[in-house]
Amino acid sequence: MADPSPPGPALLANLEPAPDAPPTSRRRRWWRLVALILGLALVLGAGGTAGAAWLYTRSVDKSIERVDAFVGVPEEGRPEKVAGKALNLLIVGSDSRDPEVAGSRTDTIIMAHVSASREDAQFISIPRDTWVDIPRSADGKSGGRKAKINAAFAWGGAPLLVQTVEKFTGVRVDNVMMVDFAGFKDVVDALDGVEIAVDEDFTSVHSSREFAKGDQHMDGDTALDYARQRYQFADGDFTRMRHQQQLVQAIIERAADRGLMKDPARLNSFIRATADAVTVDKGMKLFDTVWGLRGLRPDGMTFMTSPSRDTGWVGDQSVVFADEDASASLYEAVREDEVTDWLIANPQE
């Protein structure tokens, strides 16, 4: 894919400032925040000056809700930061309009690792049914035992999920991003749709929409429907995770194309759509994150799944058992900022 023509500071000047954010709560959309950060990074990497970039990013920052994702997380129990300049982001998502998702459990958990060079990033999906040790919740009423990893969020919110993921991976989480997958429609529509390579014929259990194998152009409703399906597939949630990864990648590639970069109004609509309902931790510095990622491009991103050994049952619960050896090897590479080398030695399908 060709690099976009540099629009320079003029493009940034045409992007309208954000109004002050209303005090109402916003739905949380993890993939929207990925799109927001990378979309802003694309703008900054396209020729904008640091000063203009700071002003625009600051205006977007006003519309983003923040949460204390690390409150009550004991420092003495956290992993050490090994590769100081690398970034490890915990991305948490749910689908508020999916009839299969109940309560406050998450259906998407991703460890996003951005290398110290900022030239590559890996998005590692952790299956929501992974059977792990969950620390005791702050109120002492839950946890302290093994359970599905997504129970951590239901029992203790973002802080307990941070503790659980850090215990499972041995990787220190730098920042937390939370979003609602249902809001995905607005971002896709702001991009005039995305291109998805459907891997097999199937029918949606929610809408009866037919998906034919091959390349398809999808609008927001269609893409959201595509990302929700799991019961038609032998590996269920694993296929859904792959489809979600496809969609994030398609959004990023679409956002980076020449048409968007040359159309300030359309680019602004895309960025505002992604920022509208995003929640991040209080310590996250949006400008520093975006400016640091301005050189990252879609071909430097890898989407993968945390290694699993098998699926099975614990009592009446269907669970995923992690491949402990492969997981230890992968997350050691994350800690040491050596994931690119790990991928060469362990090629993904």
TrEMBL record:
InterPro entries: LytR/CpsA/Psr_CW_biosynth, LytR_CpsA_psr. Residues 105-256 form the Cell envelope-related transcriptional attenuator domain. The chain crosses the membrane at residues 33-56. Residues 1-24 are annotated as: Disordered. It comes from the Bacteria. Pfam families: LytR_cpsA_psr. Keywords: Membrane, Transmembrane, Transmembrane helix. Belongs to the LytR/CpsA/Psr (LCP) family. This is Cell envelope-related transcriptional attenuator domain-containing protein. It comes from Phytohabitans flavus.
